[in-house]
Amino acid sequence: MNREQRISAVKSRITIHPPEPFRIRVIEPIDRISPLERERALNESGLNTLLLDSKDVYIDCLTDSGTGAVTQSMQAAMLKGDDAYSGSKSFRKLESAVEDIFDYKLTIPTHQGRGAEQLYVPTLIDFREKNYGLERSKMTVISNFFFDTTQAHSQINGCNIVNAPIDDAFDTNKLACFKGDLDLDMLQTTIESVGAEHIPYIVMTITCNSIGGQPVSMANMQQVYAIAREHEIPVVIDCARFAENAYFIQQRELGYEYHSIEEITKEMFQYGDLFSMSAKKDAMVPIGGILSFRNHEYFDVFRDCQNLCVVLEGFPTYGGLEGGAMERLAVGLYEAMRQEWLEYRIGQVRYLVEGLRGIGVECQQPGGHAAFVNAGKLLPHIPPEQFPGVALANELYLVAGIRTPEIGSLLLGRDHKTGEQLPCPAELLRITIPRATYTQSHMDYIIEAFRIVKENVGSIKGVRFTYEPPVLRHFNARFAYVD
Ligand SMILES: *Cc1c(COP(=O)(O)O)cnc(C)c1O
Questions:
Q1: What is the number of H-type helices and E-type strands within the chain?
Q2: What atom of ligand 1 comes closest to residue 206's alpha carbon?
Q3: In angstroms, what is the span from residue 149 Cα to ligand 1's centroid?
Q4: If you average pLDDT over residues 419-424, what whole number do you get?
Q5: What CA–CA distance (Å, rounded) separates 137 from 145?
Q6: Distance of CA 207 to CAs 186, 204, 238, 311, 421, Å?
Q7: Which residues carry this modification: N6-(pyridoxal phosphate)lysine (predicted)?
Q8: CA pair distance 390, 412, nearest whole angstrom
Q9: CA of 281 to the centre of ligand 1 (A)
């Protein structure tokens, strides 16, 4: 994009809801089963929407992970897959796309984001121990807010978790341009109190899913990286939604309004040593992930990750992906950064949030990939330990066949050492929007469903566990209503 095109792209934001910048040419039929059938389906799923069968769901807002549309170019690229076990052409294509876009040199494909996590988490911990002699019980990792699988991988490897969101990040009444920023004071105090040698890595999650798809500013990424370098702590960019983050920087951060998404992306990634990507989000692939290192500074770590990859994911030039999937991903990384698509996508989320607010449903300010409804506020009669987010998700499904997940106490879980519930800053419900999959009328339908839910909030019941899994409990938990 040249300068003129960029200016006109930025200035063309005249519609609240930009129309779809694509044509739909392959369609997947969906069915809406009856309310009685929905009640049966939810009961059989232990009142956990995550356990519903897809055939019983009308509009699926569970996640935007691997559920979005793929583009013609991505689909076409799959035919060029080279499935050589080692050093395939498809791997080289992915590796050079990563270098071109992010300026990162050492790449390992993985089957999805957590595939990358299971490589770098234990390896960085070992590296810290070897080089700085860390005391295992003090081992602590810090993030603006850990994504659930990143938290789980850190915990099963024995780390204490410190989430360091900025003040008011979870206050759904407060507006801020970059609610995803990491709190620098908290970072400094944590480093001072546990000692830098006990911190194997810092994770910058862009955008920050748990806070509500909220972006991180370039300034914050830069400052965190400077502090981390001073203490020789590696920074991992957890970047499932890198393009959405870049878009928010372009729209909101002074000095970036005429920068392209590509330019902003390249700059953001200078403020990290490695990145871990779930490619199922912005990169739009149904399956795939990437672990990549910026340069040779952490070459030893990279090599150990490669070795671990052989054991866990597959040979490090395919990492659990077939050739075609790597080709598709290489294209998806570029497609993710299209200005007009990002504009449309973020516009769709904004449309939904504004519609919900219009009928008096309190939401987190619009973020990248989802509307986050304040379930705690909507259901004040349900205490956090009865999971208002779950109660609301269940009601929304019963009323309208819409599937959504809780983002609150259930998701956050327990302290893995004391077994106590971790204090949760907000009880939210996430209405996640898969990319280019649902239209404006689906958004209107969701808003209508909330209107009906709202009429009856007093009768919605909280839930209690009948089965609580030991880790990542929200996935397989089963519940009963509290009377
Ligand atoms: C989805 C996601 C992950 C985990 O990736 P999977 O592909 O689901 O394994 C990690 N971090 C963030 C921020 C994510 O959104």
A1: 18, 14
A2: 13
A3: 7
A4: 90
A5: 21
A6: 19, 9, 9, 30, 25
A7: 281
A8: 13
A9: 8
Q: 318 an active-site residue?
A: no
What pLDDT score was predicted for residue 10? 60
User: What pLDDT shows up at residue 136?
Assistant: 84
Q: Is 240 a catalytic residue?
A: yes
Report phi then psi at 208, rounded to 5: -90, 105
Give the chain's domains with CATH numbers: 16-64+339-481 (3.90.1150.10), 72-337 (3.40.640.10)
Cα separation, 212 vs 367, in Å, equals: 6
235-238 vs 289-293, strand pairing mode: unpaired
Distance 3 CA to ligand 1 centre (A): 34
pLDDT of residue 41: 98
Choosing from 259, 281, 416, 442, the catalytic residue is 281
From 278, 281, 282, give the residue whose CB has the most ligand 1 atoms within 8 Å, as the site to mutate.
278
CA distances (Å), origin 236, targets 153, 221, 281, 412: 14, 11, 18, 21
- Asked about 105 being catalytic, the answer comes back as no
Q: What percent of the chain shows pLDDT beyond 90?
A: 90
The string of pLDDT tens digits covering residues 278-304 is 999 999 999 999 999 999 999 999 999
pLDDT score at 15: 53
The pLDDT tens digits of the residues spanning 426-437 come to 999 999 999 999
